[in-house]
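Exercise: predict the fold of this chain.
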Amino acid sequence: MKIAMIGTGYVGLVSGVCFSDFGHEVVCVDKDPRKIEMLNRGEVPIYEPGLDTVMARNVAAGRLSFTGDLAAAVDGADAVFIAVGTPTRRGDGHADLTYVMAAAEDIGRALTGYAVIVTKSTVPVGTNRQVAAAVRAANPAAEFDVASNPEFLREGAAIDDFMRPDRVVVGIETERARAVMADIYRPLFLREFPVVYTDLESAEMIKYAANAFLATKITFINEMAMLCEKVGADIKAVSKGMGLDGRIGNKFLHAGPGYGGSCFPKDTQALARIGQDFASPCAITETVIAVNDRVKRRMIDKVVDLCGGTVNGKTILVLGVTFKPNTDDMRDAPALTIVPALVGGGAKVRVVDPQGRREGEALLPGVIWAEDPYAAAEGADALVILTEWNEFRGLDLGQMAQRMAHPRMADLRNVYPPEDVREAGFEAHVAVGRKGFGLEG
C-alpha cells in the first residue's frame, strides 16, 4: 500500500514510521521545512524511545521518505492520513480544527484517483463528515471515502503500542474503504490483534470516552489520596486493594500531582464542550477537570509546608518536569503549575530532567538547569520528585541528604517508602496520600 501521512508531529511521525515497518510505502509530509530537513538527515525531532532506530531502518529500505510537497505525496496514494494538531481553542475549550480542515482542502486539490482519507488526529464528533465536505468543495470530482482511525499511543511506549495494540478502531461507511483499511492493518490482523470496525461517529466518540475515563481514574485516586492523608490511610495500600478487583484493574491508580500531557487535558475539555453543545452535559468529566487543577495547586502547598511555610530564599531541587517519564513533552505538565509558583514565591529552583530541558527552557523561565542530581543537591533546602524517571528511582538517598543544607523531600510520585527516606537521613518528608514525617503540626 502507498500511504501519505500529513503531519510529522508525535502521532504522524510515529504512525508513519510504524506503517513503513509493516512494509507499506510511506511518505510523511510537513509544511515546516526545518523539520523535513531534520528528518531527511536522520534526526528525530521528538524524543520517543526506539523511534530513531525504526525510522532509520525503513528509510534505508526505501519504504519511508519525508517531503514538504503534499501533492506529490498524495498522488497515487491508497490512503491519506491526517495527523495534524488539534489544540484546545482559546476561550471555549473546543478542539481547534483549523489545521485539519486546511489539510482536507489541500488533499482534495491534490487527489488524482481514489483514496481513503483517514483522520488520525483526535477530533470532535462530526469532524470526519466536515472533512468529506471540505474535500468535495475543493474538488467536486474527487473519488474518495473518509475513515476515522483514532490513535491510542502512550508517549514513551508508542512503538510497542502501535505494533501490539489493545485494539485498532476504524470508523468507515463503505466496503471499499474497509478493504483498504484492512490491507493497511493486515499485519496486526494476522497476529490476531483486535480491529474494531464501526461508524464514523462511534469511532470519534471512542477516543474521547477512553481518554476521559482514564483521566477520571487518575483523578479519582488523587482525590482518594487527599482523603487518605486526612484519615491516616496509605494510598499505596488502597490502590493495591482496589486494583486487585478484576472489574477495576490496577492501571492508572497511582496517586501523584495530577495528569498532564498532550491528550488528557485537551480531550477532557473538548468532551465537556461537546456535551454542552449537544445539551447533554458531561458532569463527571467537568468535575475531573476541576479536581485535577486543584490537585496540581495542592502540590504547591505541600512544598511550601515542607519548607516551613515559605519558599522565599530557599533553594529547591526539582527532579523531573516532563509530564511523564520517557518523553520530552511538557504540555500541561504539573511542573508548569508547580515550578512557576515556587519561583514566584522567591525560591531558587534547580531542575534536573533527562529530556525536559529542550522544551522546558522556554516554558520555565527563572530556573537553573543541571545534569547531575547529586551536584544539584549541594546546599539545597528541599528535594521535589515531580516525574518518576528511572534515573530518579534508584538514587543514593544518603548521599543526597548529606549534600543538602536541609534534607527535606516532597515525593510527589510516591517513589520511595517513607521509612527509607528517614533512614537515609532526611529530616522531613511529604508524599501523596500517605503519612510523612518531620513537619510541625
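Check your answer against the key: The longest strand covers residues 2-6.
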